């Protein structure tokens, strides 16, 4: 028996399920094979970022996920005396959601799983294990073993255009690719104890940098509480099976540990590792299969969701014939640096929490107190400014300077205002996500921006109709590719813009001035947004045609598709204007 599909995903964890949702949404066929008989039902990840919530929103699952989250999840580092030495409580909602949420992973993963029922072309097969991979020029063939209810097995093949391994840190797919998995695996062991009947009821995250025994205590939705305790080298892992040992660990953390309804207790270690490439031919990896990081910043789950968000539209573009498969190389290029930065940050956090030497702990606490005295330093930590923001400097991005080289290098003289000077590099939004404020349109009031922008590529201009800035053939081409044109405008001018531009672009009223400020500080008037809401190109209004063609090139747009739609206006191929993977 042989089954065919477009994308075979190995692993029905959050990354595989997120990717499958994206593929379903974009009309791509996918099969997810999962070796377990069902989804994992115990908590693992506990922190969900605003970026991930934006992804869940684009999958149309925000309402389903919200009941399993708690917003504004504050994290405090406390010392051995219980004093708070560092707080992470980032304010604002630049991407449309609070910066951190506590969440129940099994329920959120399940919402992602149930979301797949919307797509006829996507199926999940439990109790299916990937046992072998073979690749040829046109496809990848996976040998899969299905374990039946009576324990017997049957083996068959799935032939796909691409295979994505999302099976976690031990990923057989990564091993098949033969890429390095570089980094460190510190030997320190921790025990995690999750309970269903939170005996404390206090919200948020406490990281206990207590030299007597470092610990973690986290209040989660639905009365779940998590503790983690560091194990000392002379404490064998088997000890966590011993109730008396666990009661001793919990003694200073809960009034009566005999009344706990334990979900699980398990020993784990941390790893900081990253694969040297996330792609080999038709085989790719995502999530823990591609990178592993310690828990401290809550970034394992979120980094995997970032991978799926980056990869989903790229696979769809290649499979729809919009782009050639070099687009898939930009997945490694774009995701590697950020994943590495998260690994480094998480490892650093671990080294702050773990010291059990009292002298080192004293020095750390003293340094933290000193830092808290300086408001700017304190804010740096409170507002989580140390958290790396994904910013792509190469990949599907167009270097803003190359669109107007003369102006970018021009000297300001005679009081002339030359917007590109100074701002090009420092304030360029290229490679960053656009913000997501609340907006109005003719048919919607006070909604999140993405909900009115469409699901695929967007060309947006401030105060202008982008269709009037582009060559008509390019307008047709962009529409043929499924793109949306958007006019951003102050809410006060929306009625005028709807009359003037409403037939050719979606007019979006900026009710909070957030978009005006965003365009203002970056000195740009038009942007080309990728399906994942990252800015591929930004320019002055008149430069939009150039930016459009440079973006096509950066996205490795298939010339056949482009030229058939633009017989009189072939695509400019100006390598110097394009940042390449
Ligand atoms: O990001 C969060 O909200 C919590 C991150 C965290 C910290 C320590 C342990 C752990 O399991 C998660």
UniProtKB/TrEMBL annotation:
PANTHER family (alphabetical): 3-(3-HYDROXY-PHENYL)PROPIONATE/3-HYDROXYCINNAMIC ACID HYDROXYLASE, FAD-BINDING MONOOXYGENASE
Keywords (A to Z) from UniProt: Oxidoreductase
Keyword Oxidoreductase part of the UniProt annotation: yes
Source taxon at top rank: Bacteria
Keyword Oxidoreductase listed: yes
SUPFAM superfamilies to which the protein is assigned, alphabetical: FAD/NAD(P)-binding domain
Residues covered by the FAD-binding domain: 5-345
GO BP annotations listed: 3-(3-hydroxy)phenylpropionate catabolic process
Protein's recorded name: Bifunctional 3-(3-hydroxy-phenyl)propionate/3-hydroxycinnamic acid hydroxylase
InterPro entries hit by this protein: FAD-bd, FAD/NAD-bd_sf, PheA/TfdB_FAD_monoxygenase
A GO molecular function held by the record: FAD binding
């Amino acid at each position: 028996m042989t089954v065919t599909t477009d994308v075979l995903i190995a692993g029905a964890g959050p990354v595989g399920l997120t990717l499958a949702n994206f593929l379903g949404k974009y009309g791509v066929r996918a099969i997810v094979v999962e070796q377990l008989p069902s989804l994992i039902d115990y908590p693992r990840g506990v922190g969900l970022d605003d970026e991930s919530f934006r992804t869940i929103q684009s999958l149309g699952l925000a309402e389903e996920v919200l009941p399993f989250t708690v917003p504004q999840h504050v994290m405090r580092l406390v010392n051995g005396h219980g004093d708070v030495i560092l707080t992470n409580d980032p304010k604002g909602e630049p991407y449309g959601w609070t910066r951190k949420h506590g969440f129940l992973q099994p329920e959120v993963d399940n919402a992602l799983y149930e979301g797949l029922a919307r797509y006829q072309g996507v199926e999940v097969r439990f109790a299916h294990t990937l046992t072998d991979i073979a690749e040829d020029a046109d496809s990848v063939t996976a040998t899969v073993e299905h374990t039946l209810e009576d324990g017997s097995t049957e083996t068959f093949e799935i032939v796909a255009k691409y295979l994505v391994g999302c099976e976690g840190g031990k990923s057989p797919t990564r091993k098949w690719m033969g890429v390095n998995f570089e980094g460190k695996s510190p030997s320190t062991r921790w025990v995690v104890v999750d309970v269903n009947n939170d005996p404390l009821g206090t919200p948020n995250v406490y990281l206990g940098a207590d030299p007597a025994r470092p610990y973690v205590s986290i209040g989660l939705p639905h009365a779940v509480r998590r503790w983690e305790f560091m194990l000392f080298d002379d404490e064998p892992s088997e000890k966590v099976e011993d109730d008396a040992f666990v009661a001793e660990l919990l003694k200073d953390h809960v009034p009566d540990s005999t009344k706990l309804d334990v979900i699980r207790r398990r020993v784990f270690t941390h790893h900081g590792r990253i694969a040297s490439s996330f792609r080999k031919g038709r085989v790719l990896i995502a999530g823990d299969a591609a990178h592993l990081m310690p828990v401290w910043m809550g970034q394992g789950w979120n980094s995997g969701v970032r991978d799926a968000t980056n990869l989903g539209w790229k696979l769809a573009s290649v499979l729809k014939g919009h782009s050639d498969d070099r687009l898939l190389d930009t997945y490694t290029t774009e995701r590697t640096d950020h994943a590495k930065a998260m690994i480094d940050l998480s490892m650093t956090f671990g080294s702050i929490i773990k010291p059990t030497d009292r002298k080192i702990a004293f020095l750390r606490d003293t340094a933290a107190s000193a830092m808290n005295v300086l408001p700017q330093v304190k804010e740096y930590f409170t507002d989580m400014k140390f958290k790396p923001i994904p910013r792509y400097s190469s990949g599907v991005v167009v270097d803003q300077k190359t669109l107007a080289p003369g102006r970018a290098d021009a000297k300001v003289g005679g009081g002339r205002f030359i917007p590109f000077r100074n701002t090009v590099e420092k304030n360029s939004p290229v490679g960053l996500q656009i913000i997501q404020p609340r907006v109005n349109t003719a048919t919607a009031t006070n909604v999140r921006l993405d909900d009115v922008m469409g699901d695929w590529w967007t060309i947006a201009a401030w105060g202008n109709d982008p269709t009037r800035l582009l060559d008509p053939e390019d307008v047709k081409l962009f529409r043929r590719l499924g793109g949306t044109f958007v006019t951003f405008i102050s809410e006060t001018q929306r009625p005028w813009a709807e009359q003037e531009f409403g037939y050719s672009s979606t007019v979006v009223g900026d009710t909070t001035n957030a978009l005006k400020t965003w365009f203002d500080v970056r000195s740009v008037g038009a942007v080309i947004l990728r399906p994942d809401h990252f800015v591929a190109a930004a320019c002055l209004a008149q430069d939009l045609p150039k930016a459009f063609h440079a973006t096509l090139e950066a996205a490795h747009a298939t010339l056949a598709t482009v030229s058939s739609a633009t017989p009189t206006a072939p695509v400019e191929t100006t390598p110097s204007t394009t940042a390449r993977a």
